[in-house]
Amino acid sequence: MSMQETIQTGKHYLLDTYAQVPVVFTGGKGMNLIDEEGKHYLDFVGGIAVNALGYGDPGLSDAINKVVSEGLLHCSNLYYNKVGVEAAKELCTLAEMERVFFCNSGAEAIEASLKLARKFGHQSEAPRSEIISMMNSFHGRTYGAVTATGQKKYHKNFAPLPQGFSYAEFNNLESVKALITEKTCAIIVEPIQGEGGIVPSEPAFLRGLRSLCDEHNLLLIYDEVQCGMGRSGKPFAYQAYGVKPDVLTTAKALAGGVPCGAMLTTGKASHIFTPGDHASTFGGNPLAMAAVREMVRRLSDPAFCAHVQEMGEYLRAKLEQLVVRYPDLCIAVRGKGLINGLVLTVPPRQVVDACFAKGVLVASAGSDVLRFVPPLVVEKKDIDAVLAVVDEVLATL
Protein backbone atom coordinates (compact mmCIF):
# COMPACT_ATOMS: atom_id res chain seq x y z
CA MET A 1 0.00 0.00 0.00
CA SER A 2 1.46 3.38 -1.04
CA MET A 3 1.39 6.42 1.23
CA GLN A 4 -1.52 7.91 -0.71
CA GLU A 5 -3.41 4.61 -0.50
CA THR A 6 -2.84 4.52 3.26
CA ILE A 7 -4.17 8.08 3.57
CA GLN A 8 -7.28 7.29 1.52
CA THR A 9 -7.92 4.14 3.57
CA GLY A 10 -7.56 6.18 6.75
CA LYS A 11 -10.03 8.78 5.50
CA HIS A 12 -12.54 6.00 4.86
CA TYR A 13 -12.25 4.15 8.16
CA LEU A 14 -11.16 6.74 10.76
CA LEU A 15 -13.72 9.06 12.31
CA ASP A 16 -13.16 12.74 11.57
CA THR A 17 -11.76 13.87 14.92
CA TYR A 18 -8.53 15.35 13.53
CA ALA A 19 -7.78 17.46 10.47
CA GLN A 20 -4.87 15.23 9.57
CA VAL A 21 -1.87 16.33 7.52
CA PRO A 22 -1.47 14.13 4.41
CA VAL A 23 1.58 12.16 5.53
CA VAL A 24 2.11 8.67 6.98
CA PHE A 25 4.94 8.28 9.46
CA THR A 26 6.47 4.84 9.82
CA GLY A 27 9.60 5.43 11.88
CA GLY A 28 11.78 7.84 13.75
CA LYS A 29 15.37 8.38 14.83
CA GLY A 30 16.65 10.98 17.25
CA MET A 31 14.93 14.28 16.45
CA ASN A 32 13.53 13.06 13.13
CA LEU A 33 10.33 11.40 11.98
CA ILE A 34 10.46 9.34 8.78
CA ASP A 35 7.51 9.00 6.43
CA GLU A 36 6.45 6.00 4.36
CA GLU A 37 8.44 7.26 1.38
CA GLY A 38 11.65 7.70 3.40
CA LYS A 39 11.55 11.50 3.80
CA HIS A 40 12.92 12.84 7.11
CA TYR A 41 11.20 15.60 9.10
CA LEU A 42 12.89 17.54 11.91
CA ASP A 43 10.26 17.34 14.65
CA PHE A 44 9.51 20.30 16.94
CA VAL A 45 6.03 19.00 17.75
CA GLY A 46 7.14 15.84 19.53
CA GLY A 47 3.69 14.25 19.40
CA ILE A 48 2.53 17.51 21.07
CA ALA A 49 5.02 17.45 23.95
CA VAL A 50 4.91 13.66 24.30
CA ASN A 51 8.12 12.23 22.83
CA ALA A 52 10.46 13.84 25.33
CA LEU A 53 13.37 11.52 24.55
CA GLY A 54 13.00 11.73 20.79
CA TYR A 55 12.79 8.57 18.70
CA GLY A 56 14.58 5.28 19.20
CA ASP A 57 15.97 6.18 22.64
CA PRO A 58 17.97 3.15 23.85
CA GLY A 59 17.07 3.52 27.52
CA LEU A 60 13.35 3.77 26.87
CA SER A 61 13.45 0.93 24.34
CA ASP A 62 15.30 -1.33 26.77
CA ALA A 63 12.85 -0.60 29.59
CA ILE A 64 9.85 -1.44 27.40
CA ASN A 65 11.44 -4.50 25.80
CA LYS A 66 12.29 -5.94 29.22
CA VAL A 67 8.62 -5.94 30.22
CA VAL A 68 7.57 -7.44 26.88
CA SER A 69 10.13 -10.23 27.23
CA GLU A 70 8.91 -11.08 30.74
CA GLY A 71 5.37 -11.60 29.45
CA LEU A 72 3.36 -9.48 31.92
CA LEU A 73 1.90 -6.59 29.91
CA HIS A 74 -1.16 -6.21 32.11
CA CYS A 75 -2.02 -7.05 35.68
CA SER A 76 -5.38 -6.08 37.16
CA ASN A 77 -5.30 -3.41 39.84
CA LEU A 78 -6.97 -5.99 42.07
CA TYR A 79 -3.33 -6.98 42.64
CA TYR A 80 -0.01 -5.18 43.06
CA ASN A 81 2.60 -5.26 40.32
CA LYS A 82 6.20 -4.60 41.30
CA VAL A 83 7.12 -2.17 38.55
CA GLY A 84 3.96 -0.16 39.26
CA VAL A 85 4.81 0.20 42.94
CA GLU A 86 8.37 1.20 42.08
CA ALA A 87 7.13 3.77 39.55
CA ALA A 88 4.72 5.21 42.11
CA LYS A 89 7.43 5.69 44.71
CA GLU A 90 9.91 7.20 42.25
CA LEU A 91 7.39 9.54 40.60
CA CYS A 92 6.09 10.79 43.95
CA THR A 93 9.65 11.44 45.07
CA LEU A 94 10.47 13.36 41.88
CA ALA A 95 7.26 15.40 42.10
CA GLU A 96 7.57 15.94 45.86
CA MET A 97 4.04 14.61 46.30
CA GLU A 98 2.72 11.80 48.52
CA ARG A 99 0.46 9.46 46.53
CA VAL A 100 -0.47 8.78 42.91
CA PHE A 101 -3.30 7.36 40.80
CA PHE A 102 -2.21 6.06 37.39
CA CYS A 103 -4.45 6.14 34.33
CA ASN A 104 -3.92 6.30 30.55
CA SER A 105 -4.17 9.94 29.45
CA GLY A 106 -4.27 13.56 30.49
CA ALA A 107 -8.05 13.75 30.21
CA GLU A 108 -8.40 10.76 32.54
CA ALA A 109 -6.05 12.37 35.05
CA ILE A 110 -8.16 15.55 34.95
CA GLU A 111 -11.38 13.56 35.40
CA ALA A 112 -9.85 11.89 38.45
CA SER A 113 -8.91 15.27 39.91
CA LEU A 114 -12.43 16.64 39.39
CA LYS A 115 -13.99 13.62 41.11
CA LEU A 116 -11.50 13.96 43.96
CA ALA A 117 -12.37 17.65 44.34
CA ARG A 118 -16.09 16.95 44.39
CA LYS A 119 -15.74 14.23 47.04
CA PHE A 120 -13.56 16.58 49.09
CA GLY A 121 -16.28 19.20 48.86
CA HIS A 122 -19.01 16.77 49.88
CA GLN A 123 -17.09 15.94 53.05
CA SER A 124 -17.71 19.47 54.32
CA GLU A 125 -20.52 20.24 56.78
CA ALA A 126 -22.22 22.15 53.98
CA PRO A 127 -21.51 20.19 50.76
CA ARG A 128 -19.50 22.07 48.15
CA SER A 129 -19.20 21.12 44.48
CA GLU A 130 -18.23 24.18 42.44
CA ILE A 131 -14.87 24.36 40.67
CA ILE A 132 -13.20 27.50 39.37
CA SER A 133 -11.23 27.16 36.13
CA MET A 134 -9.52 29.76 33.95
CA MET A 135 -10.57 31.44 30.74
CA ASN A 136 -8.57 30.27 27.73
CA SER A 137 -7.59 27.08 29.54
CA PHE A 138 -7.58 23.57 28.09
CA HIS A 139 -8.03 20.42 30.17
CA GLY A 140 -9.16 17.75 27.69
CA ARG A 141 -12.15 16.58 25.67
CA THR A 142 -14.00 14.17 27.95
CA TYR A 143 -17.10 15.66 29.57
CA GLY A 144 -15.66 16.86 32.86
CA ALA A 145 -12.39 17.96 31.29
CA VAL A 146 -14.01 19.83 28.40
CA THR A 147 -16.38 21.58 30.81
CA ALA A 148 -13.41 22.68 32.91
CA THR A 149 -11.86 24.03 29.71
CA GLY A 150 -12.43 27.78 29.57
CA GLN A 151 -12.97 28.06 25.81
CA LYS A 152 -16.53 28.11 24.48
CA LYS A 153 -15.53 26.69 21.11
CA TYR A 154 -14.88 23.33 22.77
CA HIS A 155 -18.33 23.39 24.42
CA LYS A 156 -20.30 24.05 21.24
CA ASN A 157 -22.77 21.31 20.26
CA PHE A 158 -22.16 19.24 23.41
CA ALA A 159 -24.73 20.67 25.82
CA PRO A 160 -25.88 19.98 28.42
CA LEU A 161 -22.48 20.11 30.09
CA PRO A 162 -21.90 19.16 33.74
CA GLN A 163 -22.87 21.95 36.12
CA GLY A 164 -20.79 23.67 38.77
CA PHE A 165 -17.94 25.25 36.78
CA SER A 166 -17.07 28.95 36.54
CA TYR A 167 -14.25 30.69 34.70
CA ALA A 168 -11.91 33.37 36.00
CA GLU A 169 -9.51 35.52 34.02
CA PHE A 170 -6.08 33.88 33.90
CA ASN A 171 -3.39 35.77 35.84
CA ASN A 172 -6.06 37.96 37.48
CA LEU A 173 -6.41 37.12 41.16
CA GLU A 174 -9.28 39.54 41.73
CA SER A 175 -11.26 37.72 39.03
CA VAL A 176 -10.78 34.45 40.93
CA LYS A 177 -11.73 36.01 44.27
CA ALA A 178 -14.99 37.27 42.79
CA LEU A 179 -16.06 33.72 41.91
CA ILE A 180 -15.41 32.05 45.26
CA THR A 181 -18.61 31.17 47.11
CA GLU A 182 -19.59 28.93 50.02
CA LYS A 183 -20.09 26.19 47.39
CA THR A 184 -16.56 26.32 45.91
CA CYS A 185 -14.42 23.24 46.50
CA ALA A 186 -11.42 23.67 44.17
CA ILE A 187 -9.49 25.82 41.73
CA ILE A 188 -7.87 24.24 38.66
CA VAL A 189 -5.14 25.97 36.67
CA GLU A 190 -2.38 25.27 34.17
CA PRO A 191 0.90 26.76 35.46
CA ILE A 192 1.64 27.35 31.77
CA GLN A 193 -1.38 27.51 29.48
CA GLY A 194 -0.66 25.31 26.45
CA GLU A 195 -3.50 25.13 23.95
CA GLY A 196 -4.49 28.64 25.02
CA GLY A 197 -1.37 30.06 23.40
CA ILE A 198 1.68 29.23 25.57
CA VAL A 199 0.99 31.70 28.39
CA PRO A 200 2.97 31.24 31.63
CA SER A 201 1.39 32.06 34.97
CA GLU A 202 2.64 35.10 36.82
CA PRO A 203 4.40 33.90 40.01
CA ALA A 204 2.27 36.25 42.13
CA PHE A 205 -0.88 34.74 40.60
CA LEU A 206 0.01 31.21 41.68
CA ARG A 207 1.03 32.44 45.12
CA GLY A 208 -2.31 34.21 45.38
CA LEU A 209 -4.21 31.08 44.36
CA ARG A 210 -2.37 29.10 47.02
CA SER A 211 -3.32 31.67 49.65
CA LEU A 212 -6.97 31.70 48.55
CA CYS A 213 -7.16 27.91 48.69
CA ASP A 214 -5.63 27.86 52.16
CA GLU A 215 -7.96 30.62 53.37
CA HIS A 216 -11.15 29.01 52.04
CA ASN A 217 -10.14 25.33 52.45
CA LEU A 218 -10.15 24.61 48.72
CA LEU A 219 -8.08 22.15 46.72
CA LEU A 220 -5.54 23.72 44.36
CA ILE A 221 -5.25 21.53 41.25
CA TYR A 222 -2.46 22.00 38.72
CA ASP A 223 -2.87 20.68 35.19
CA GLU A 224 0.68 19.83 34.14
CA VAL A 225 -0.35 17.47 31.37
CA GLN A 226 1.66 19.48 28.81
CA CYS A 227 4.05 21.57 30.90
CA GLY A 228 5.12 18.81 33.31
CA MET A 229 7.77 16.08 33.06
CA GLY A 230 10.75 18.36 32.46
CA ARG A 231 9.15 20.60 29.85
CA SER A 232 9.51 23.75 31.99
CA GLY A 233 13.16 23.13 32.84
CA LYS A 234 12.22 21.54 36.16
CA PRO A 235 10.72 18.07 36.63
CA PHE A 236 7.38 19.83 37.21
CA ALA A 237 6.47 23.40 36.37
CA TYR A 238 5.26 24.13 39.90
CA GLN A 239 8.83 23.56 41.09
CA ALA A 240 9.97 26.41 38.84
CA TYR A 241 7.44 28.67 40.58
CA GLY A 242 7.86 27.35 44.11
CA VAL A 243 4.10 27.16 44.69
CA LYS A 244 2.90 23.66 45.53
CA PRO A 245 -0.58 22.33 44.65
CA ASP A 246 -2.71 19.84 46.55
CA VAL A 247 -3.32 17.86 43.36
CA LEU A 248 -1.13 17.61 40.25
CA THR A 249 -2.11 15.98 36.98
CA THR A 250 0.34 14.95 34.29
CA ALA A 251 0.49 12.79 31.15
CA LYS A 252 1.94 13.34 27.65
CA ALA A 253 5.70 12.89 28.30
CA LEU A 254 5.09 10.92 31.50
CA ALA A 255 6.01 7.63 29.81
CA GLY A 256 8.01 9.00 26.88
CA GLY A 257 5.37 8.07 24.29
CA VAL A 258 3.64 5.12 25.94
CA PRO A 259 0.06 6.11 26.86
CA CYS A 260 -0.02 7.05 30.54
CA GLY A 261 -1.50 9.66 32.85
CA ALA A 262 -1.25 10.34 36.55
CA MET A 263 -2.91 12.30 39.32
CA LEU A 264 -0.61 13.01 42.26
CA THR A 265 -1.76 14.23 45.67
CA THR A 266 -0.33 15.60 48.88
CA GLY A 267 -1.63 16.55 52.31
CA LYS A 268 -5.40 16.65 52.72
CA ALA A 269 -5.91 15.43 49.13
CA SER A 270 -4.11 12.13 49.74
CA HIS A 271 -6.79 10.35 51.78
CA ILE A 272 -10.04 11.37 50.09
CA PHE A 273 -10.56 8.42 47.75
CA THR A 274 -11.37 5.03 49.20
CA PRO A 275 -11.67 1.69 47.34
CA GLY A 276 -14.50 1.86 44.83
CA ASP A 277 -14.45 5.65 44.38
CA HIS A 278 -12.38 5.59 41.21
CA ALA A 279 -10.44 3.14 39.05
CA SER A 280 -8.75 2.46 35.73
CA THR A 281 -8.51 -0.99 34.18
CA PHE A 282 -5.26 -0.30 32.36
CA GLY A 283 -3.87 2.38 34.68
CA GLY A 284 -0.50 1.44 36.16
CA ASN A 285 0.11 -1.47 33.77
CA PRO A 286 3.68 -2.85 33.81
CA LEU A 287 4.50 -1.67 30.26
CA ALA A 288 3.62 1.96 30.96
CA MET A 289 5.19 1.84 34.42
CA ALA A 290 8.52 0.68 33.03
CA ALA A 291 8.48 3.66 30.67
CA VAL A 292 7.55 6.01 33.54
CA ARG A 293 10.48 4.72 35.57
CA GLU A 294 12.86 5.46 32.70
CA MET A 295 11.49 8.99 32.31
CA VAL A 296 11.79 9.59 36.05
CA ARG A 297 15.33 8.23 36.02
CA ARG A 298 16.31 10.71 33.32
CA LEU A 299 14.59 13.66 34.97
CA SER A 300 16.23 12.85 38.28
CA ASP A 301 19.59 13.77 36.74
CA PRO A 302 20.07 17.53 37.31
CA ALA A 303 22.02 17.73 34.06
CA PHE A 304 18.92 16.72 32.08
CA CYS A 305 16.79 19.62 33.31
CA ALA A 306 19.76 21.97 33.06
CA HIS A 307 19.97 21.03 29.38
CA VAL A 308 16.26 21.82 28.94
CA GLN A 309 16.78 25.23 30.53
CA GLU A 310 19.82 25.96 28.37
CA MET A 311 18.10 24.91 25.14
CA GLY A 312 14.98 26.86 26.08
CA GLU A 313 16.97 30.04 26.61
CA TYR A 314 18.76 29.51 23.32
CA LEU A 315 15.49 28.91 21.47
CA ARG A 316 13.82 32.00 22.94
CA ALA A 317 16.82 34.15 22.05
CA LYS A 318 16.59 32.94 18.46
CA LEU A 319 12.85 33.58 18.38
CA GLU A 320 13.39 37.10 19.70
CA GLN A 321 15.64 37.70 16.71
CA LEU A 322 12.69 36.86 14.46
CA VAL A 323 10.55 39.41 16.32
CA VAL A 324 13.19 42.05 15.55
CA ARG A 325 13.60 40.92 11.94
CA TYR A 326 9.89 40.66 11.13
CA PRO A 327 8.07 43.22 13.34
CA ASP A 328 5.00 43.17 11.09
CA LEU A 329 4.64 39.39 11.42
CA CYS A 330 6.01 38.49 14.85
CA ILE A 331 4.74 40.23 17.99
CA ALA A 332 6.23 38.43 20.98
CA VAL A 333 7.85 35.31 22.39
CA ARG A 334 6.31 33.46 25.34
CA GLY A 335 7.34 30.37 27.23
CA LYS A 336 9.53 28.62 29.74
CA GLY A 337 12.00 25.79 29.28
CA LEU A 338 11.10 23.97 26.07
CA ILE A 339 7.45 24.99 25.81
CA ASN A 340 7.54 28.16 23.73
CA GLY A 341 5.37 30.19 21.41
CA LEU A 342 5.94 32.86 18.77
CA VAL A 343 2.95 35.22 18.60
CA LEU A 344 2.09 36.07 14.98
CA THR A 345 -0.05 38.61 13.14
CA VAL A 346 -0.81 36.03 10.43
CA PRO A 347 -2.60 32.68 10.85
CA PRO A 348 0.00 30.22 12.19
CA ARG A 349 -1.34 27.53 9.85
CA GLN A 350 0.35 29.34 6.95
CA VAL A 351 3.72 28.93 8.64
CA VAL A 352 3.01 25.39 9.83
CA ASP A 353 2.12 24.21 6.31
CA ALA A 354 5.07 25.94 4.65
CA CYS A 355 7.49 24.47 7.20
CA PHE A 356 6.01 21.01 6.68
CA ALA A 357 6.70 21.27 2.95
CA LYS A 358 10.34 21.95 3.84
CA GLY A 359 10.63 18.96 6.19
CA VAL A 360 10.11 20.76 9.51
CA LEU A 361 7.28 20.02 11.94
CA VAL A 362 5.92 22.85 14.08
CA ALA A 363 2.39 23.39 15.40
CA SER A 364 -0.02 26.12 16.40
CA ALA A 365 -1.45 26.97 19.82
CA GLY A 366 -4.54 29.12 20.04
CA SER A 367 -5.40 31.35 17.10
CA ASP A 368 -2.15 33.27 16.69
CA VAL A 369 0.77 31.33 18.17
CA LEU A 370 3.39 29.14 16.53
CA ARG A 371 4.23 26.45 19.09
CA PHE A 372 7.62 24.82 19.67
CA VAL A 373 7.59 21.75 21.94
CA PRO A 374 10.50 19.62 20.67
CA PRO A 375 11.87 16.51 22.34
CA LEU A 376 13.79 17.55 25.45
CA VAL A 377 16.98 16.06 24.00
CA VAL A 378 17.08 18.78 21.32
CA GLU A 379 20.46 20.38 20.56
CA LYS A 380 21.42 23.85 19.34
CA LYS A 381 22.03 22.56 15.81
CA ASP A 382 18.42 21.34 15.67
CA ILE A 383 17.12 24.70 16.85
CA ASP A 384 19.27 26.48 14.29
CA ALA A 385 17.98 24.23 11.50
CA VAL A 386 14.31 24.66 12.40
CA LEU A 387 14.47 28.41 12.87
CA ALA A 388 16.36 28.81 9.60
CA VAL A 389 13.34 27.25 7.89
CA VAL A 390 10.89 29.39 9.88
CA ASP A 391 12.95 32.43 8.86
CA GLU A 392 12.75 31.40 5.20
CA VAL A 393 8.99 31.00 5.45
CA LEU A 394 8.42 34.33 7.21
CA ALA A 395 10.49 36.06 4.53
CA THR A 396 7.92 34.98 1.93
CA LEU A 397 4.85 36.30 3.78
TrEMBL record:
Q: Name one GO cellular component term.
A: cytoplasm
EC no. given is: 2.6.1.11
- Answer yes or no on keyword Plastid: no
Q: Which residues participate in N(2)-acetyl-L-ornithine binding?
A: 141, 280
Cross-referenced PROSITE patterns: AA_TRANSFER_CLASS_3
Pfam families named among the record's database cross-references: Aminotran_3
**Does the keyword field hold Ligase?**
no
What reaction gets catalysed by this protein? Answer: N(2)-acetyl-L-ornithine + 2-oxoglutarate = N-acetyl-L-glutamate 5-semialdehyde + L-glutamate
Q: What is this protein called?
A: Acetylornithine aminotransferase
Say which species the protein is native to: Sphaerochaeta halotolerans
